[in-house]
Amino acid sequence: MSEGQSSARAPVGRPLLSLTLASMMDEVHAHSGAVYLLSPDQPVLEMAVMAGLPRAFAAPWERVGLNAPIPVSDAVRERRLVWVGGEEEMARHYPRIAMALPYPFSLAALPVATPARAYGAVFVTWPGTHPPVLSDWERDHLSAACDRLAVRLERAAEQSLPLAPEPDLLAAPLVGGMAGTLGTVEAARMVARLPYGLCSLDLHGRVGFANAAATELLEVPVNRLLGAQMWATVPWLNDPTYEDRYRAALFSQHVTSFVALRPPDTWLSFRLYPSTTGLSVRISRARPAAELDRAAPRPARGQPRLVTITQVLSLAGALTEAVGVQDVVQLVAEEIAPAVGSQGLVILGSRAGRLRVLGHQGYEDPRVVERFDGMPLSEPIPGSQVLRTGVPAFFESRAEVERLYPALVRNPSAFAAWAYLPLIASGRPVGTCVLSYAAPHPFPTEERTVLTNLAGLIAQALERALLYDAKHRLAHGLQEALLPRTLPSLPGIESAARYLPAMQGMEIGGDFYDLAAAQGTAAAVIGDVQGHNVTAAGLMGQVRTAVRAYTAVGQPPEEVMRSTNRLLLDLGSELFASCLYLRLDPARGRAVMSRAGHPPPLLRRPDGQVRVLDLAGGPLLGIDASAAYPSTEVALPAGSLLVLYTDGLVESPGTDFEDSVADLCHRLTALGDLPLNDLADALIQHATDMPDRLDDDIALLLLQAHAR
After folding, report:
1. Three-class SS string for 412-451?
2. 0.90 exceeded by the pTM?
3. Strands 266-275 and 278-285
4. 309-319 and 445-482 are packed helices; what angle lies between their axes, rounded to 10 degrees?
5. SS3 letters for 318-368?
6. Is the four-CA dihedral 156, 158, 161, 164 of positive or negative sign?
């Protein structure tokens, strides 16, 4: 290999990404940031370097798809700067990030791209004190830096220069000694004499220094504290709530505090002072618990605390399992509302410019809530206003809400405080979540942030549920339109029918049945078109219509089946259908049947004996144009019962089909001479109770002959 070839493969010498990111953050006074590079062989962004915070803060997004709903992906995909001006805006547009990082901060994400190619993205963040709008000079500095980085990456790619791995930019570890940490021996002595505890933590939460008062208050030797995370070393601080306070202080760069109980009865106050290199923690004795209870509102004994990140993640997982709107309402009422101390819940939606009450719980008088159903969105009430504007509203007392919205004075509820949370998904409002509290309730900033984050999760679940319910109504409305609304009353024949859709999903089945008069006799049909979709349902409707037409012109059963078979082939459909067609003549006590690959019917004789009618037949409809479907005549004395069904009634995994049909015969015998509708309900109920029932539709048609 020549020297030129060797140097061509040498990696870029300087830490290009780290230097660019550090310079960019310094120019705009950003708090943290990261550089992502686009994978060369798949649409994935991979975090190359992070600065200002531990990578653990962004662990869920170290490797993200280009279509993922996060700012860096949007920046690359849309080739634009993405600005998120605060926690509420984050919750509204990127609820997944807000869920894991419910802290006040701002974020800018930019593409690293030339006109010809995208190389990756950069994001930088600021504490919550940053103005909600990105200034022009910040925008210009960030854009110019990303453009310069893109040009350098383009040159490196042209010269086949790989980028060497670069370490994240974090502050150097703190030295485990007082003099080394504070600079002078005298300063160290002064700190050692302080009456309160003082600790320093690095960006990973590890203790780098602790004075004597801190070790005494924590009751942990200094050698165990140094180099370890405080919540991992001090057993009674091993609580996600306290770790969350550390994360909140670092991310928001706001002073944060909490009070913890050192067993058995000593309360300690922790105050966290953040910087870009770590935290200083002041520890002191707190007032007795009784005084703390009087000084500030705290949850009553037994009430849950405000949700932590861990709880939010758990709730998010639960919300993904909600299918319909009522599932979402029930889940929010049973898990989310109690977790935030709320006693009442209302979920509002809208349709055609009017409010819709989608569900509620916790209200003794439902009329208090239901009076809003159908109210115009223009009505001056907080539920509609929040839905229109997308801005949350918090009312700490009844007096506050009634002063702003006099209309609510009429027919008031028993609640005393409310949080109205906009439910925004896919950039549009889908509803309002109203959390009601039995007593006046303050809503501090942190709680408002958490509630707003939760609203983003609820909104996504509600959007899916609304879409599911709409498709479900459409699918099964179409199904019902293709089936007979009622069965005709025919001389000498009593009938009952049931249709049960598949257990899961919203797919339309191809099962069908029908009953009609046929030139002095009765004609019945039951069938099953292959598939569970609109095509299957449409073909089912055509088959049912065709059978009626062939019946009307007087074709015998075998010819009806042959004509229908040719029709399916002429339609060019790739779907097949099973079918059973019969002519009933109760006056003569006879029935003539023709079968095309359909399960055999059951006949219960007047003496109660049940047998399977083993009919001759042909293949499924839609396979062979020359197929024949011979007919069979059977005796049908008065009192006889014919049971026609589709395979969903009898099939189950691991069970032989003939055994399943035999079991149906036994059930029919055991149920005895029930009224026909009760018998139909009992047979369907048994099928739904089967734990291993196949996810298939069921059609059932019962026909009983009577003397005329």
Report:
1. CCCCCEEEEEEEEECCEEEEEEEEEECCCCCCCHHHHHHH
2. no
3. antiparallel
4. 10
5. HHCCCCCHHHHHHHHHHHHHHHCCCCEEEEEEEECCEEEEEEEECCCCCHH
6. positive
The CA distance from 187 to 590, in Å, is 110
DSSP state of 272: E
Beta bridge partners of 82: 109
Q: Rounded to an integer, what distance in angstroms lies between the CA atom of residue 321 and that of residue 431?
A: 19
Query: Cα separation of 547 and 555, whole Å?
Result: 10
**Which residues contact residue 534 at a Cβ distance below 8 angstroms, ignoring those fewer than 6 apart?**
478, 508
- Cis before 264? omega within 30: yes
Distance CA 569, CA 567 (A): 5
Give the three-state DSSP class for 411.
coil
CA atoms within 13 A on the CB side of 403: 6
Cβ–Cβ < 8 Å for 350, 375: no
Nearest alpha carbon to residue 527 among 542, 515, 544, 503: 544
What separation in angstroms does the CA of 179 have from each of 184, 186, 216, 280?
Answer: 5, 8, 20, 16
- Token pair 């200094």: residue: 222
Which 3 state secondary structure label does DSSP give 13? coil
3-state secondary structure of 65: strand
Token pair of 61 as six digits: 């997004």
List b or e across 159-188, with b for residues whose CB sees 16 or more CB atoms inside 10 angstroms.
eebebeebebbbeeebebebeebbeeeeeb
Task: Report the pLDDT value the prediction gives residue 642, as an integer from 0 to 100.
Answer: 94
The Cβ of residue 56 has, within 10 Å, a number of other Cβ atoms equal to: 13
Query: Do the Cβ atoms of 625 and 687 come closer than 8 Å?
Result: no
Can you tell me the distance from the alpha carbon of 496 to that of 204, in angstroms, rounded to the nearest whole number?
Answer: 71
Report the interhelical angle of 534-552 vs 557-571 (nearest 10°).
140
Q: Which two tokens stand for residue 357?
A: 């009450």
Q: Is 379 helix (H, G, I), strand (E, B) or coil?
A: coil
**281: Cβ–Cβ under 8 A, 6 or more apart, which residues?**
197, 198, 199, 200, 201, 214, 230, 270, 271, 272, 273
- In angstroms, the first-to-last Cα distance of the chain is 103
DSSP character string of 110-179:
EEEE-SS-EEEEEEEEEETTS-SS--HHHHHHHHHHHHHHHHHHHHHHHTT-PPPP---B-PPPPPSSHH
Q: What is the mean pLDDT of each run of 10 residues along the chain (708 residues)?
A: 41 71 89 89 86 77 81 92 88 74 87 92 90 91 93 88 78 40 51 73 81 85 83 78 77 81 85 81 71 40 44 58 76 78 88 87 85 86 87 88 75 83 83 91 80 82 78 66 79 89 58 84 88 70 85 89 90 84 90 92 91 88 90 91 90 77 90 90 82 70 83
In this structure, what are the phi and psi dihedrals at residue 555, rounded to the nearest 5 degrees? -65, 140
Work out the number of other CB atoms within 10 angstroms of the CB of residue 241: 15
Q: How far apart are CA 621 and CA 543, in angstroms?
A: 10
Q: In this structure, are residues 618 and 628 in contact, taking their beta carbons and an 8 Å threshold? A: yes
Rounded to 5 degrees, what angle do the CA atoms 325, 326, 331 make?
A: 100
206 secondary structure, DSSP code:
B
CA dist 288 and 528 (Å) reads 74
